[in-house]
Amino acid sequence: MAxxxxxxxxxxxxxxxxxxxxxxxxxxxxxFMMIFMILxxxxxxxxxxxxxxxxxxxxxxxxxxxxxxESEQEQKRLKIEAATFKTPARIEAIAKGELAMALPTExxxxxxx
Length: 113
Prior knowledge:
By secondary structure, the chain is mostly helical. It has a domain at about 30-105. About 70% of the residues lie in helices and about 0% in strands. It has helices spanning about 20-85, 90-95. The longest helix is centred in the middle third of the chain and has 67 residues, at about 20-85.
């Protein structure tokens, strides 16, 4: 039988982790976690702020829409009121009653050429 040659080279034994290396590793993890928590907090605060602004803007939009509807109704009411003030029958009644005016007679009409 042939013998197989095996070359193992150098085998590294498990190293002993010292307390200073363990403390440095924990410090790195702590720094990473603190940075992660700060970023998470900032993102959360921004999310809450944006939602608050969204709700505030929706309330302003609904208030502006309500005021627009009220203004449109007021405008329609005023147009109807103005139309009633312009009627010839009302104008004639005010002219005869309050201002003591009358229609001109034939002698009062002068044609200008």
